[in-house]
Structures are given as structure tokens and as C-alpha cells.
Amino acid sequence: MTYLCKMILENISLKPFNTFGIEATSSYFGRFSSIEELSPILKEYSQEKLLVLGGGSNILFVKNHFDGLVLVNEIKGFEVIESTSEFAIVKAGAGEVWHEFVLKCIENGFCGVENLSLIPGSVGASPMQNIGAYGVEIKDVFEKLEAFHIASGEIHTFSKEDCEFGYRESVFKRKLKDQYIITSVFYRLSKTQNVNTSYGVIESELVKEGITSPTIKNVSNAVIAIRRSKLPDPKEIGNAGSFFKNPIVSKLTLEKIKRNHPNVPNYPSQNDEVKLAAGWLIEQAGWKGKTFDYYGVHKLQALVLVNYKGATGKEVYDLSTLIITDVKAKFGVDLEREVNII
Q: Could you tell me the pTM of the whole model?
């Protein structure tokens, strides 16, 4: 089959487009910065399997070739749609770098996303994953989003309820997977500096800096310092951030674990369940800092699997399987991968 679109390249390396730094290729590759660019590409390549990337920070290529079309979403934009004395609604292009978007919000005095500073990835991935950190999730500040319906070519709008947000989940990861491409996201942000410092580690960092009345910029700086102190920079060591979700378990399971580990960290969840710290479980199982030639588990954060140099996606995936099996055997807890396996 012959394709004519000049915007598309063939047999391109995907290594620069995934933060794990895994070497893989795709049959076809392109970028789009507007719906006007996206539509003709999808029409011409409608028979190809499609993969849309943002920052490439939450994927693991386990095969050395993607037999289809890979597109990078580069739709930009930062626009204040509505502004009152209490809040602002900001529209951001899905291809905006997430951390840069956070910094723009802080510069404008908009409160709500500062706890999500330095999370890798793009704006478009934020509702898809319902990203969260240090007591804040995207659903807390989400207003709506616009998405391109691949089958019809129409733009559809999704409310918070439509997105069906869960823990690191949304309708786009389950029911509507591979049916839409998110093009823009709207956030409702406060103009009141009601910062969230409920996580002890943030409070400790602020105390260390001698800050008693923190601003959103102070909180952002604290979060950045915390993340940099324990998480590897993908530009230096290949990784996708947290590889596993924190598991939600019954109180009965928690009590069983407490028999041997009375100080197991746990947090209230919904439906009379509790959330455990996946990193703690992995560390207690003895995996933290383990290295296998050129990949392994990060020495400072057991949640993070790393590619030091030249690992294949299958090697990293097989390591995650060993960890999942071992944690299940030792604690009776099922770990779930947060990273998308391609």
C-alpha cells in the first residue's frame, strides 16, 4: 500500500519519543499541531494501527517494532477562557508540556496544580491518567476536555462525569480506549492561595526552607525539590516514573500484613478499603536498588524501574513481572502496572 502524505516518515526510531529510552521503530511516524493537520493524516492512514504519543513518559515498548502509525501530539496553547475574582478557567493544548503548563499557572497566580509540579508528560495525558501527587489529582481541578473522535472526525466535549475518573484511570483508558485523541483540556483553578501541604513530606521541605506561610510557588518549589531528590531524571536515566499503581486492598488484607509488618503505610480509600504504598511493598520484598546488567529498580525509589543503558522493553517488562509475582507471594497483594505496555 502506498501513502502520499508528505508529513509522514517511514521506519523511524522511537527512542527519542519515550522517556524509558527503549529502542523501537514504527512503520510510519508523524506529528500534528492542529486538528487541520491531524484530519488528513488519519484519513490517509485509516487502515493502520494508531498510537498517539504526548511526552512518551508513561509507555513501555516491549516489541522492537510498532507495525502502524505513531503520531506525536504537539497541539499548543494556554488561554484564560473565564476569569472572576475567585477562579479562572484555563484552556491548554494537549501537546503542552505538563510542567511548563504548571509553571504558567503559578506565574498567573492560579492555584490548584502546584502539587503536580515536575510530573513528566503532556497536558493531554493528565486527564487520561488522572495524574496525581501529594494529595491532588487532576479530577480536583478538571473542568472539561475536547477530543477528536477518530471514527467520525468530530470534536466531542467531555465533562468530569463523562471522563469517569478513578485512581490513575479514566474512560479513555478503558471503555473509550483508542477511540479519541484529546486535543485540549480545561482546568478550573482558584485565585485564592489555599495551598495543600497536607502531605508531611511537603511540610518538612517547607520547614527546612524556613517557610511558614507558603505560596503556590513555595509549594511548587518544595515538590520539585522532593521529586528531584528521589526520582531519576529521564534525560539521564531512562524511566517512566512510577511503574506501579498503589494497590487498593480490603481491611482484612491489611490486617494480615500487619501481623508481620505492624507499621505498614496505609491510607483510607473508598468503599471501606485502604490504599497501600506499592513502593514500600516492593522495598520490603527486597527489590529496591537491584540491578541486572543495564536495567533494574532505582536505588532511591522502588516504584521506579530504570533503563541505565541499552535495555530492551521486554527485559524491563519481565522484571516487573518478577516483582509482581514476588509481592503477591509475600504479601498477598496484586500490583498493577501504571505504565502502558505497547
A: 0.90
